[in-house]
Amino acid sequence: MKLRSLLSCLFLFLCAIAVNAAPLERNAFTFTKYDLAVRIEPGQQRLGVRGKVTLRNDSSTPQKVAVLQISSSLGWRSVASRGAALQFVSQSYTSDIDHTGALSESIVTLPEAIAPKGIIDLEIAYEGVILLDATRLTRIGTPELAARSTDWDQISPKFTAVRGVGYVTWYPIATEDASLSDGESLSETLGQWKSRESASSMHLQITVEGDEDSEPPELLLNASSCPTAHEVGRDFVADCMYQAAGSAVPTFVIANYESVDRPDIAVHFLRGHEAAATNYADASEKVAPFIKEWFGRPRAKAQTADLIDPGAGPFESGSFLLTPLANSDAKLGLVAAHQLTHAALSSARPWIDEGLAHFAQALYLESQSGRQVALDYMSLHRSALSTAESEKHNPDIAARADDAANQSLVNTTREELYRSKAMCVWWMLRDMVGDPVLKKAIASYRPEQDKDPSYMPRLIQAQTQRDLEWFFDDWVYRDRGLPDFKVASAFTRKTLPEGYMLTVTVDNLGAAGAEVPLMVKFAGGEVTRRLVVRGKSNGVIRVEVPKPPEEIVVNDGSVPESNATNNTFRLDNSDPPNSPNKP
Ligand SMILES: [Zn+2]
Q: What pTM does this model have?
């Protein structure tokens, strides 16, 4: 009897070790549904949450333990299932996914193991304060002021603005740790979480505690809908719903706003910023017809809200934009073009969602100031892109990142790619197929039907006779890096009665193909032709010019390239005609 109990003791002890030693599978569960009652007390800078989360086991093994993470400034009060309290261990977990640089992690022992694809509802309660905290940035050496202008989230009596995952973990998540000092670790962790949560819904009943002495403030959320909002006694209560909580990044703002309301946009501003708000609303109304023509009618009114710190970095979630209005400059039309594009078209795929919003900015600039200004604007993006591409193709760095297919435009979580590279891809497509074709393809896009990465490429292909498969292969489905064009040779022949036939061979030293413009300059003029040069290949084009050609330039800047220093070719006209020119 004694021995047996000793043995079972030992057995339990060993089991306990086994449980503790088993690595926590933080990515096992997807949080498919949130139903949270949130109480905000601005005076105390406090947040208290009671509610329910639904977890689905998306791993291939049964799970007996669930991990729930919230910001380290919040603390767990209880975790229960069907009314019965569950045992959990709370620990601090270092991760730069939260502004405090750490999470309060609750490791919950579930009542029974949840089979793969099985679900469990957990009743949860947690609370704490949300203060301005830029620890994750200052500890890697970001100057205090810059850090506070980046991580500006806080609850405070005067002004409250709190963004969700990636900023303040004010609703529970489960992620592996992310570090800002480790390359792309944070954006990868965030990207994975967002795509896992792309179909998750969040219902919020949000109560803001009122203050007898002051005016009731305005509450703004980036929710899909907030059908009810009303005052209950001194409190303000709203009921809001998010359909795609992963990409939306649930965010709330509480401030004494006034607003400028226009058909396409509402601009909420803080006292003293009325002129800036009106300027932005005016700029938006001016851009709106152009955006409608390209991307269709807005699905909802765009919302812009002021931030109290004039140096604060802007934040966007769909057509919801937080930006300090006091600091607005002459680029209002450019900002509005981006925001209104999001209001007109949304996609769960970042290369479509953000790519088109940036493409819209380049289109808008072109409509205002011509093609060259748009190309100059895109070149600002291209430098970020070249760096990203060369890092990706550097074996040391690439080995750390996922394989190349995961960095393709359809899968990437890197901003330089789904913003800058995607913008260039849309611009190249537009140069290849023309405005009417691309507009028709965009108009036929239905986000709810976008179940496959090839959906959008097929919509574009359906509008044109041109074979675009090679282009999508090199730029969208796979990551073949960037092209590198070079004029390999040029041959001039005098034609009768007067004129010259120039035969140009263009090499592409890179692995991605493109249709690229080729400019031929001669005394008093220039002609531009376009030619397709596939990756690791060459293309030949004949160009007729009225005067002896003097210079050939491949690429006007509309095609991103890894090396643009070898794009100019000077022809030596002292050579007798009919002789080939060598570079
Ligand atoms: Zn955007």
A: 0.89
